[in-house]
């Protein structure tokens, strides 16, 4: 038992130091590790399997909305990146440059893509000639590099993985429809697959994507009350099409600039899942994305090993048709040690089976999220287990939503606002005048930013009908969500 206790004690208590807890869980659960390159991580097989499940679930949704996957170059010539002033200014501090090819200096520096608008727009300018070429609906799964000063595994790393959609449309209305459609795809995906409740909304002018007309976001609350921007969708307007000369001849024989969008999520979603659901014992993974949904632990003595392991193998083969199952029949570790290991890794269900269970034709099912144990007749396992996994998924979303709601507070008083930010955690819903300078002053005073201007179900920004700004006392234009964020 000493070793089993120590296994869990290697994790810093979540309630003691959330940041250290997070790093401990990522490393001890073998999701990722540091490398000799500052700010870069290696995603280990278990972490990559988790990312693959996230990626595949989203990829299906992207394709179902009519988009196709493609791949564009990693390098962006400096002249292309500098074509759109606001865009390059927004990314300049984070751009990594290639200056040599072998031993020879390059005639022009190449940026390693911090995002792909510039290179993709230069190519779309060749592809688009007529209204018949529109819309272009393309997504790519790729890596990007942003030279971040402060990094944290999965949440903010120098190199990370993501998807970025880039589309072209005939009209502003079509582009806006696309932007909001993909925002809602992200919302449904986050809540259905990740069990992560999110608030969809519009970013302020200060917080929007460099070069965008409008930026929309889904905002999630982490276990320490901080916000996580979990995905963004941008209406780029015609800024990039005018810079890169992406034009088409319309039905009326008039040449026009296309309207564009871009949208993306990244491996920071892995960090979001950890911080939304994890507890003092490690990960708690939603069943829909868990690399292993059920782990089978045979419990035996030397005399019963053969019969118990044989039954466990039969169960594993049977269950492999309905879920992602793993049999751990290693005899160099005790069952208790294995229990701790798979709790740490967040496997949704542990199935225990021993000699007495075999005699009774049953097994024990243990939920990772609640640690609740139930006995299940083996004759019912194929119906009970999928139902249990589905219930766990539903319960995890509800618990996360309840946590968010309990940690969302409303105020119209700036003194109370500052007190909540310092003493409590979570979101503050408060009236704001709409002035960017007032927004920046709140950030300077409290380190809290406007996470979003929330949307109605039909995608309209909710405007305030009465009241005054929480800080300056001017008439309020919007009621918005504030929080400190990752």
Describe the structure.
With 486 residues, the chain is of the alpha+beta class. The protein folds into 3 domains: 17-277, 2-Layer Sandwich (BirA Bifunctional Protein, domain 2); 294-386, Anticodon-binding domain (Rossmann fold, 3-Layer(aba) Sandwich); 408-483, Translation Initiation Factor IF3 (2-Layer Sandwich), CATH 3.30.110.30. It is 36% helix and 27% strand. The protein has 15 helices and 23 strands. The chain has helices spanning 2-9, 18-28, 45-64, 78-81, 85-91, 117-127, 172-193, 239-244, 268-277, 305-319, 335-344, 355-359, 381-406, 414-423, 436-446, and strands at 32-34, 41-43, 68-69, 75-77, 96-101, 104-112, 136-145, 159-169, 198-202, 214-221, 227-237, 247-249, 255-257, 259-266, 294-298, 325-327, 349-353, 362-367, 373-377, 408-410, 427-432, 449-454, 478-483. The strands form 5 sheets. Strands 3-7-8-14-11-10-9-22-23-21-20 form an 11-stranded mixed sheet, with helices on both faces. A 5-stranded mixed sheet has the order 16-15-17-18-19, sandwiched between helices. Strands 4-6-5 form a 3-stranded antiparallel sheet. α1 runs parallel beside α11 and α3 packs across α7 (172-193). The longest helix is centred in the last third of the chain and has 26 residues, at 381-406. The model is unreliable at 1-8 (pLDDT under 50).
């Amino acid at each position: 038992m000493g070793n089993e206790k120590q296994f869990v004690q290697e994790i810093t208590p979540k309630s003691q130091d959330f940041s250290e807890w997070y790093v401990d869980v990522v490393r001890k659960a073998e999701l990722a590790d540091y490398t000799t390159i500052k700010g870069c991580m290696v995603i280990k097989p278990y972490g990559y399997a988790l990312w693959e499940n996230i990626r595949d679930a989203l990829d299906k949704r992207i394709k179902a909305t009519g988009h196709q996957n493609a791949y564009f170059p990693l390098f962006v010539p400096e002249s292309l990146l500098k074509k759109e002033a606001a865009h390059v200014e927004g990314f300049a501090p984070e751009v990594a440059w290639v200056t040599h090819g072998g031993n020879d200096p390059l005639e022009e520096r190449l940026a390693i893509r911090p995002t792909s608008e510039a290179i993709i727009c230069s190519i779309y300018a060749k592809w688009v000639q007529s209204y018949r070429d529109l819309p272009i609906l393309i997504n790519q799964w790729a890596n990007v590099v942003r030279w971040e000063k402060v990094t944290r595994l999965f949440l903010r790393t120098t190199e990370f993985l993501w998807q970025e959609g880039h589309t072209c449309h005939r009209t502003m209305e079509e582009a806006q429809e696309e932007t909001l459609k993909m925002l809602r795809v992200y919302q449904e995906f986050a809540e259905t697959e990740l069990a992560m409740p999110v608030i969809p909304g519009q970013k302020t002018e200060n917080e929007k994507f460099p070069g965008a007309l409008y930026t929309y976001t889904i905002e999630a609350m982490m276990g320490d009350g901080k916000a996580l921007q979990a995905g963004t969708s941008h209406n780029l307007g015609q800024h990039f099409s005018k810079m890169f000369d992406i034009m088409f001849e319309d039905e009326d024989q008039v040449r026009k600039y296309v309207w564009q969008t871009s949208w993306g999520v990244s491996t920071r979603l892995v960090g979001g899942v950890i911080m939304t659901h994890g507890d003092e014992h490690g990960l708690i993974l939603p069943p829909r994305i868990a690399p292993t949904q059920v782990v089978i632990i045979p419990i035996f003595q030397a005399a019963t090993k053969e019969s118990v392991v044989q039954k466990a193998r039969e169960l594993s083969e049977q269950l492999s048709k309905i879920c992602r199952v793993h049999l751990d029949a290693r005899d160099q570790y005790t069952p208790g040690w294995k229990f701790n290991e798979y709790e740490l890794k967040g496997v949704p269900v542990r199935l225990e089976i021993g000699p007495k269970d075999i005699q009774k034709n049953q097994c024990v099912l243990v939920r990772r999220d609640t640690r609740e144990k139930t006995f299940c007749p083996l004759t019912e396992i194929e119906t009970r287990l999928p139902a249990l996994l589905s219930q766990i998924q539903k319960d995890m979303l509800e618990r996360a939503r309840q946590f968010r709601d309990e940690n969302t507070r409303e105020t119209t008083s700036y003194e109370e606002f500052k007190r909540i930010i310092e003493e409590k955690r979570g979101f503050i819903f408060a009236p704001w005048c709409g002035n960017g300078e007032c927004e920046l002053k709140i950030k300077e005073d409290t380190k809290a930013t406007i996470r979003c201007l929330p949307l109605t179900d039909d995608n309209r920004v909710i405007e305030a009908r009465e009241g005054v700004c929480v800080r300056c006392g001017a008439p309020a234009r919007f009621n918005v969500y504030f929080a400190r964020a990752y």
